[in-house]
Structure formats: C-alpha cells, structure tokens
C-alpha cells in the first residue's frame, strides 16, 4: 500500500521538466527569472533557450533569426497558406485556421529542411569515419535516393531558377564562420552536394531556402528533427498574416479555385440507374 506521501511524489514526478519552474509569483525559464528575460533577450534567443537550455551567442542568435525571417512566407499558392485563407472563409477562428495550415506541413510540404539536414548529417558521419567530403556526399546521396527516391530535398525550386533567399543566408553563414561563430562544415557540405548534383544531372541544381536553412540549423547544432519545428515557427508568421488578411477581406467558403474555373471530371458519362427489383 502506497503512503499518501508516495502518491504525492509519484504525481509530482509524472511530468518532469528542465524547461520551466513555476511557483506563485515566480516564473523561471531554464533557471532565468522571466522578468530578467523580458526586454533583454530577443524572440530567437528565447527559442534557443527553450529548446537548447542555454543562451546563444549574439552571432548564433543572428543566424537563427536570419533563417527564421527568410522562411516566413511564400505566397498564397503555398498549400499551407491557402489552407489558412480557405479556413477563415469557412468561418473558423484564427487559431483554427493556423492549426489547419500547420497540420499539412509534413514530409512533402514543409519537411524538406529536416530531410536535407538528415542528408547533411549522414555526410558528416561518413566524413567522421574517414571518407573525403566528395565521396561522403556521393554515398549519402545514393543512400537517400535508394530509400526515398530521386528528389533531393533542399536543392532546386519549382518556382525560382535561383532562390533569392539562399545566397544571402549562405553569405551570412560564411561571415559567421569567418568570425569563428560556426565551424563552416555544413556550408562546405551543402556546396559539395550542389556540385555533385550538377555533375550528376548535367546542369546546376541550386540550393534553395530549405537547403540553406538546413545549413544554418546544422551549423548551429540543432538536431534534424528540430529543423521542421523551426520551419513551422517561421512559417506560422506567414500563416497568421494571410489568415488575418483574409479575415479583413471577407469572403465566404472560398475554395482553391474561383468558381469560373472548373475542375476536370474523368468519370463515367451521365447514366440512368438500372431498374431495381
């Protein structure tokens, strides 16, 4: 028979966290009083503190912020954004519209950054095992294609011949490397992937936003699984802004296309139901 004290201790241990400590009149995040954090650290620094447990250097915080800024939006043709707008016209609240949008940020739409980080991590493991970078990239790409198909996440873009965001992000990462804030290892890996893909395809397949943010998040030491979470934090800003804009514009039950543009029906021609016995 458990004592009352045993039951209380079991209940207290049910949720164990190192993230936050709350008592009446007191809130501490990773040991820092919340009143000391407010007004003294930025939102990207707070994200880092919450996820990583410590405070980033100014250079690390700047890189994280740059990656978050770069991926906030890509227009209403992006499925997650259009879903948020359609949801609003169905009469739901902003939080429901945002949740509907975030829920489609999965492997195909929204998952490329995490997947690219997984490729970079595989390359890094092979380099640690003694493979030169070129061979490590070749082997990692072969392994990815064998398991997932020919599309290499983080490279090429269906809309942009050259993604205007990636060059700026890489330049910032290289500047941080020159200051000793990051190692530059994943910059080299990302550029080598680009070179290998160009050799394989016979044309340049430039790094896109997902490949560039994957470089930054990997340089900053984030696990690949966190890559998608960080992307969702970033894209949620665009989702919110589009949902709010649609709310202000009004409209009822807007579908993916104007009603003047029909869908394609490919089923049987109109027919009568056979006589029933």
UniProtKB/TrEMBL annotation:
Keyword Transferase in record: yes
Keyword set, alphabetical order: Transferase
Any GO molecular function: citrate synthase activity
Domain of life of the organism encoding this protein: Bacteria
Membrane-spanning parts: none
Location of the region described as Disordered in the Swiss-Prot/TrEMBL record: 250-277
GO cellular component: cytosol
EC number: 2.3.3.16
InterPro entries, per the entry: Citrate_synth-like_lrg_a-sub (IPR016142), Citrate_synth-like_sm_a-sub (IPR016143), Citrate_synthase (IPR002020), Citrate_synthase_sf (IPR036969)
GO BP terms in the entry: carbohydrate metabolic process; tricarboxylic acid cycle
Pathway this chain belongs to: Carbohydrate metabolism; tricarboxylic acid cycle; isocitrate from oxaloacetate: step 1/2
CDD domains: CCL_ACL-C
Similarity comment: family membership: Belongs to the citrate synthase family.
Protein name from the UniProt record: citrate synthase (unknown stereospecificity)
């Amino acid at each position: 028979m458990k004592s009352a004290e045993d039951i209380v201790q079991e209940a207290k241990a049910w949720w164990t966290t190192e993230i936050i400590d709350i008592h009446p009149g007191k809130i501490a995040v990773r040991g820092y009083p919340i009143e000391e954090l407010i007004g003294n650290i930025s939102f990207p620094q707070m994200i880092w503190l919450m996820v990583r447990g410590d405070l980033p250097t100014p250079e690390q915080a700047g890189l994280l912020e740059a990656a978050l800024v770069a991926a906030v939006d890509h227009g209403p043709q992006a499925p997650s954004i259009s879903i948020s707008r359609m949801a609003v016209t169905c009469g739901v609240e902003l939080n429901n519209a945002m949740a509907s949008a975030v829920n489609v940020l999965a492997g195909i739409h929204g998952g490329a950054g995490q997947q690219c980080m997984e490729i970079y991590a595989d390359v890094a493991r092979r380099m640690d095992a003694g493979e030169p970078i070129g061979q490590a990239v070749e082997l990692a790409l072969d392994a990815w294609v064998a398991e997932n198909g020919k599309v290499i996440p983080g490279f090429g873009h269906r809309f942009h011949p050259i993604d205007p965001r990636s060059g700026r992000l890489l330049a910032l990462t290289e500047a941080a490397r020159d200051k000793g804030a990051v190692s530059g290892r994943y910059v080299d890996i990302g550029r080598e992937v680009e070179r290998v893909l160009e050799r394989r395809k016979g044309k340049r397949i430039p790094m896109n936003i997902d490949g560039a943010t994957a470089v930054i998040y990997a340089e900053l030491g984030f696990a690949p699984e966190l890559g998608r979470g960080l992307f969702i934090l970033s894209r949620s800003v665009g989702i919110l802004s589009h949902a709010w804009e649609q709310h202000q514009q009004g409209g009822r039950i807007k579908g993916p296309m104007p009603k003047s543009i029909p869908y394609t029906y490919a089923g049987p021609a109109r027919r009568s139901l056979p006589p029933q016995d």
